[in-house]
Each structure stands twice: as C-alpha cells, then as structure tokens.
Amino acid sequence: MQTPLLYTFRRCPYAIRARLAVHASGIAVDMHEVDLKSKPPAMLEASPKGTVPVLRLADGRVIDQSLDIMCWALAISDPEGWLDIGAEALAQSDSLIERNDGRFKELLDRYKYPQRVAPPDGSPSPPPASHHRDEAAGILADLDARLSRHEHLVGARMSIADAAIVPFVRQFAMVDPAWFAATPWQALRRWLEGIVASPHFVAVMQKRS
Ligand SMILES: N[C@@H](CCC(=O)N[C@@H](CS)C(=O)NCC(=O)O)C(=O)O
User: Is 52 in the pocket of ligand 1 (CB under 6 A)?
Assistant: First the structure.
C-alpha cells in the first residue's frame, strides 16, 4: 500500500500541529516541503484552496485542514492518549483551539505585520505592534493561569489542545523574545519551552534537504 503524502511547510504553525499529531501517532507519511511561492500542481489539484498542510491518502482521499489531519492521525493511533482526556477536557480543548485559530491568530498576524493593518478612523497611521500584542495578552494570561493549575492546557498530560496551540504561542514569543521573557507568565514559558524541547517537536522541526 502506498504511504500517505503530507504537503507541508516547515515553519507554518498549522503544518507543525499536523506533523506533531502524525508523529505522535507513529503513522508513516511521506513529507513534501512546499515552496509557498510555487505550489506543486499535484497539491493544488488535490486541494485548490492552496494552503498547507494537505494530506493525500493512499486511496485518493484528501484532508486539507490541519485539525482534521490531527484527528485523522489520532483516531487511527493515539499511543499517548492526546484525545483520551474525557468529554469535559475535550470540550475545553475545542473552545481553546477555536479561540486560538480565531481571535489569537488574528492578533498574532497583526502583531507580526502591524503595517498591514488599516489606520483607525481619523488616524494617519496604523496602530503600533504593541497595541495588538497587548490585546493578545489577555488570552496568553488565561493560558498561563490554566498552566499554573496543571502541567498542560486541559489537564496534567499533553493533549491535542497543547499540540494544536503551541505552534502559535511559539510564533508569538518569537516576534519579540525579550518582551516575552520579561512577562510574568512563568507557567506559559515553562510549557512552551518544554514542548519545543520535546522529542516530537524536535523531530517535526528537523530541516529536510
Ligand atoms: N485552516 C487551514 C489554514 C492553513 C494555512 O493558512 N496555512 C498557511 C501557511 S501557515 C498557507 O498555506 N497559506 C497559503 C500561502 O501562504 O500561500 C488549516 O488549518 O490547515
């Protein structure tokens, strides 16, 4: 049987979360590192919307949303129990991921590229990066509060919530590492550093030739 093929981009947080789940599942997939400026025709044929990650299965089925790829992998094999966390924690996980992919991602993009934001009415220039960063701080403080209560976002163990959200928090921290290091969010930093140093994360971030 043919091996599934994952179109991916090393630094894309959506692709990172998909690779993390596939790695944790132990399922073998072939990886195709995509040049986002010149996407492979076979990927666009499989998924015309043109975002990574895209997973093409041996039977021709295509999964082209990162969360769906995570769930596909973990439904087949979930040796660390990333989905085996109980109904209440799963519901919390869903709502944390929804907030991450919605409001937090929006603020992250604005924080990274403040010049792309339209100036507010009556102002000649867009708000500074710090404006968006400070708006996102409420969400990060909430994550930190959760992580002060237990080692991971919805409980003691790593779950789908941690894997789905950590690539975005990592990107946020990398915009201004000195600022992030000076925040009071010790539990959040410990969590981020712990996952980034973990074997799954290190493996999925390896540079491929
Ligand atoms: N909802 C999608 C979003 C994926 C996404 O936006 N990926 C970005 C890269 S991080 C992308 O491929 N953008 C298209 C481009 O840059 O041309 C998912 O969860 O898989």
Answer: yes
